[in-house]
Design brief:
By secondary structure, this protein is α/β, with parallel strands linked by helices. Helices cover 33% and strands 22% of the residues. The chain is built from 5 helices and 7 strands. Bound molecules: guanosine-5'-triphosphate and magnesium ion (MG). The site of guanosine-5'-triphosphate (GTP) has 24 residues, from helix 1.
Length: 192
Protein backbone atom coordinates (compact mmCIF):
# COMPACT_ATOMS: atom_id res chain seq x y z
CA UNK A 1 0.00 0.00 0.00
CA UNK A 2 1.20 3.49 -0.79
CA UNK A 3 0.69 6.43 1.53
CA UNK A 4 -0.49 9.19 -0.76
CA UNK A 5 -1.76 11.68 1.81
CA UNK A 6 -1.70 12.18 5.54
CA UNK A 7 -3.08 14.98 7.66
CA UNK A 8 -3.74 15.70 11.31
CA UNK A 9 -7.47 15.92 11.91
CA UNK A 10 -8.20 16.25 15.61
CA UNK A 11 -7.10 15.65 19.20
CA UNK A 12 -9.71 14.38 21.57
CA UNK A 13 -9.78 14.24 25.36
CA UNK A 14 -13.00 12.29 25.70
CA UNK A 15 -14.40 9.40 23.73
CA UNK A 16 -17.64 11.17 22.83
CA UNK A 17 -15.51 13.26 20.43
CA UNK A 18 -14.10 10.33 18.43
CA UNK A 19 -14.83 11.10 14.75
CA UNK A 20 -16.13 7.59 13.86
CA UNK A 21 -16.23 8.31 10.13
CA UNK A 22 -13.34 6.13 8.94
CA UNK A 23 -11.70 2.89 10.02
CA UNK A 24 -9.18 3.34 12.82
CA UNK A 25 -5.80 1.73 13.47
CA UNK A 26 -4.55 2.52 16.95
CA UNK A 27 -1.08 2.41 18.47
CA UNK A 28 -0.76 1.58 22.16
CA UNK A 29 2.16 0.98 24.49
CA UNK A 30 4.26 2.38 27.29
CA UNK A 31 5.21 5.98 27.25
CA UNK A 32 8.36 6.55 25.16
CA UNK A 33 8.14 3.14 23.44
CA UNK A 34 8.01 4.82 20.02
CA UNK A 35 4.32 5.06 19.02
CA UNK A 36 4.51 8.51 17.48
CA UNK A 37 7.85 7.70 15.80
CA UNK A 38 6.36 4.56 14.30
CA UNK A 39 3.43 6.52 12.89
CA UNK A 40 5.83 9.06 11.38
CA UNK A 41 7.98 6.35 9.84
CA UNK A 42 4.93 4.66 8.32
CA UNK A 43 3.92 8.02 6.86
CA UNK A 44 7.49 9.00 5.89
CA UNK A 45 6.88 12.40 7.45
CA UNK A 46 6.97 14.01 10.88
CA UNK A 47 3.28 14.50 11.59
CA UNK A 48 3.03 13.02 15.09
CA UNK A 49 4.94 14.78 17.88
CA UNK A 50 7.78 12.74 19.33
CA UNK A 51 10.05 13.41 22.26
CA UNK A 52 12.98 11.99 24.17
CA UNK A 53 11.04 12.65 27.38
CA UNK A 54 8.09 10.36 28.10
CA UNK A 55 4.53 11.66 28.17
CA UNK A 56 4.66 13.64 24.94
CA UNK A 57 1.30 12.48 23.62
CA UNK A 58 -1.44 13.48 26.06
CA UNK A 59 -4.57 13.35 23.99
CA UNK A 60 -5.86 10.92 21.40
CA UNK A 61 -4.63 12.21 18.04
CA UNK A 62 -6.30 11.27 14.77
CA UNK A 63 -4.38 11.36 11.49
CA UNK A 64 -6.37 10.77 8.31
CA UNK A 65 -4.44 8.70 5.78
CA UNK A 66 -5.22 8.46 2.05
CA UNK A 67 -8.61 10.03 2.88
CA UNK A 68 -9.60 6.51 3.87
CA UNK A 69 -8.52 5.56 7.39
CA UNK A 70 -7.14 6.96 10.63
CA UNK A 71 -3.96 6.33 12.51
CA UNK A 72 -4.80 6.89 16.16
CA UNK A 73 -1.88 7.99 18.32
CA UNK A 74 -2.68 7.28 21.97
CA UNK A 75 -0.96 8.56 25.10
CA UNK A 76 1.51 6.11 26.60
CA UNK A 77 0.83 4.28 29.82
CA UNK A 78 3.21 3.80 32.76
CA UNK A 79 4.57 7.33 32.81
CA UNK A 80 4.91 7.66 36.57
CA UNK A 81 6.53 11.08 36.73
CA UNK A 82 3.36 12.53 35.23
CA UNK A 83 1.88 12.06 38.69
CA UNK A 84 -0.72 9.53 39.73
CA UNK A 85 -3.60 11.79 38.76
CA UNK A 86 -2.43 12.32 35.18
CA UNK A 87 -1.46 8.69 34.83
CA UNK A 88 -4.93 7.59 35.87
CA UNK A 89 -6.50 10.14 33.56
CA UNK A 90 -4.58 8.86 30.55
CA UNK A 91 -5.16 5.21 31.48
CA UNK A 92 -8.91 5.89 31.62
CA UNK A 93 -8.76 7.68 28.28
CA UNK A 94 -6.97 4.74 26.64
CA UNK A 95 -9.35 2.22 28.22
CA UNK A 96 -12.41 4.16 27.18
CA UNK A 97 -11.10 4.56 23.65
CA UNK A 98 -10.56 0.80 23.30
CA UNK A 99 -13.98 0.12 24.79
CA UNK A 100 -16.09 2.66 22.95
CA UNK A 101 -14.50 3.32 19.57
CA UNK A 102 -16.92 2.04 16.96
CA UNK A 103 -14.49 2.10 14.05
CA UNK A 104 -11.45 0.47 15.63
CA UNK A 105 -10.12 -2.14 13.19
CA UNK A 106 -6.86 -3.19 14.80
CA UNK A 107 -4.52 -2.26 17.62
CA UNK A 108 -0.77 -2.24 17.17
CA UNK A 109 0.67 -2.88 20.59
CA UNK A 110 4.25 -1.70 20.98
CA UNK A 111 6.92 -2.96 23.35
CA UNK A 112 10.59 -1.96 23.44
CA UNK A 113 12.65 -4.85 22.02
CA UNK A 114 15.25 -4.41 24.79
CA UNK A 115 12.93 -4.57 27.79
CA UNK A 116 10.86 -7.25 29.45
CA UNK A 117 7.14 -6.46 29.20
CA UNK A 118 5.76 -4.68 32.29
CA UNK A 119 2.67 -5.73 34.19
CA UNK A 120 0.78 -3.01 32.32
CA UNK A 121 1.93 -4.50 29.00
CA UNK A 122 0.65 -7.87 30.17
CA UNK A 123 -2.65 -6.34 31.24
CA UNK A 124 -3.01 -4.70 27.85
CA UNK A 125 -2.31 -7.96 26.04
CA UNK A 126 -4.81 -9.73 28.27
CA UNK A 127 -7.41 -7.05 27.61
CA UNK A 128 -6.89 -7.16 23.84
CA UNK A 129 -7.03 -10.95 23.78
CA UNK A 130 -10.32 -11.14 25.67
CA UNK A 131 -11.98 -8.10 24.12
CA UNK A 132 -11.73 -9.68 20.67
CA UNK A 133 -10.06 -6.61 19.14
CA UNK A 134 -7.61 -7.79 16.44
CA UNK A 135 -4.06 -6.81 17.38
CA UNK A 136 -0.43 -7.10 16.34
CA UNK A 137 2.51 -6.92 18.75
CA UNK A 138 5.47 -4.87 17.60
CA UNK A 139 8.94 -4.82 19.16
CA UNK A 140 10.23 -1.28 18.59
CA UNK A 141 13.76 0.14 18.41
CA UNK A 142 15.12 -3.03 16.78
CA UNK A 143 18.04 -0.93 15.50
CA UNK A 144 19.25 -0.61 19.10
CA UNK A 145 20.24 -4.27 19.35
CA UNK A 146 22.66 -6.27 17.21
CA UNK A 147 20.95 -7.79 14.17
CA UNK A 148 22.15 -11.23 15.20
CA UNK A 149 20.45 -10.81 18.61
CA UNK A 150 17.02 -9.67 17.41
CA UNK A 151 15.65 -13.22 17.52
CA UNK A 152 16.82 -13.74 21.11
CA UNK A 153 15.21 -10.51 22.29
CA UNK A 154 11.95 -11.37 20.54
CA UNK A 155 11.99 -14.82 22.13
CA UNK A 156 12.41 -13.28 25.61
CA UNK A 157 9.40 -11.02 25.11
CA UNK A 158 7.36 -13.87 23.63
CA UNK A 159 8.14 -16.08 26.63
CA UNK A 160 7.10 -13.34 29.05
CA UNK A 161 3.82 -12.92 27.17
CA UNK A 162 3.35 -16.71 26.80
CA UNK A 163 2.99 -16.39 23.02
CA UNK A 164 5.11 -17.53 20.06
CA UNK A 165 7.96 -15.42 18.64
CA UNK A 166 6.23 -15.51 15.26
CA UNK A 167 3.49 -13.22 16.58
CA UNK A 168 5.92 -10.38 17.37
CA UNK A 169 7.10 -8.11 14.58
CA UNK A 170 10.48 -6.35 15.00
CA UNK A 171 10.37 -2.72 13.95
CA UNK A 172 12.74 0.20 13.55
CA UNK A 173 11.55 3.72 12.95
CA UNK A 174 15.03 4.55 11.75
CA UNK A 175 15.72 1.67 9.39
CA UNK A 176 12.02 1.24 8.52
CA UNK A 177 12.33 -2.46 9.27
CA UNK A 178 8.78 -3.85 9.54
CA UNK A 179 7.14 -0.97 7.67
CA UNK A 180 5.92 -3.03 4.69
CA UNK A 181 4.54 -5.72 7.00
CA UNK A 182 2.43 -3.21 8.93
CA UNK A 183 1.16 -1.52 5.77
CA UNK A 184 0.20 -4.94 4.37
CA UNK A 185 -1.78 -5.76 7.52
CA UNK A 186 -3.65 -2.46 7.22
CA UNK A 187 -4.33 -3.03 3.55
CA UNK A 188 -5.95 -6.37 4.31
CA UNK A 189 -8.44 -4.62 6.63
CA UNK A 190 -9.26 -2.00 4.04
CA UNK A 191 -10.07 -4.61 1.41
CA UNK A 192 -12.66 -6.28 3.63
N1 LIG B 1 16.78 4.21 17.82
C1 LIG B 1 15.45 4.31 17.78
N2 LIG B 1 14.84 5.27 18.52
C2 LIG B 1 13.49 5.34 18.48
C3 LIG B 1 12.71 4.46 17.68
N3 LIG B 1 11.40 4.78 17.86
C4 LIG B 1 11.37 5.81 18.73
N4 LIG B 1 12.62 6.17 19.12
C5 LIG B 1 12.99 7.23 20.07
O1 LIG B 1 12.30 7.02 21.29
C6 LIG B 1 11.85 8.26 21.87
C7 LIG B 1 10.35 8.23 22.11
O2 LIG B 1 9.67 8.15 20.88
P1 LIG B 1 8.14 8.61 20.72
O3 LIG B 1 7.75 8.18 19.34
O4 LIG B 1 7.95 10.01 21.10
O5 LIG B 1 7.43 7.66 21.81
P2 LIG B 1 5.89 7.58 22.21
O6 LIG B 1 5.59 6.15 22.46
O7 LIG B 1 5.04 8.27 21.21
O8 LIG B 1 5.91 8.35 23.61
P3 LIG B 1 4.67 9.08 24.39
O9 LIG B 1 3.96 9.96 23.43
O10 LIG B 1 5.37 9.81 25.47
O11 LIG B 1 3.81 7.98 24.92
C8 LIG B 1 12.29 9.34 20.88
O12 LIG B 1 13.51 9.88 21.34
C9 LIG B 1 12.49 8.59 19.59
O13 LIG B 1 13.44 9.18 18.75
C10 LIG B 1 13.40 3.47 16.89
O14 LIG B 1 12.82 2.66 16.17
N5 LIG B 1 14.76 3.45 16.98
MG1 LIG C 1 3.70 9.80 21.43
Amino acid sequence: MKISSAKFVTSVAKVSNIPNDYKEFAFVGRSNVGKSSLINSLLSQKLARTSTTPGRTRLINFFLINNAFYFVDLPGYGFHSAGKQNENLWATLIENYLKYSKALERVFMLVDIRHAPTSQDKQMLYYLTYSGIPFTIIATKADKVAKSKVKNYIKKIADEFCITSASILPYSSIGQQGREEILNIIEQHLNL
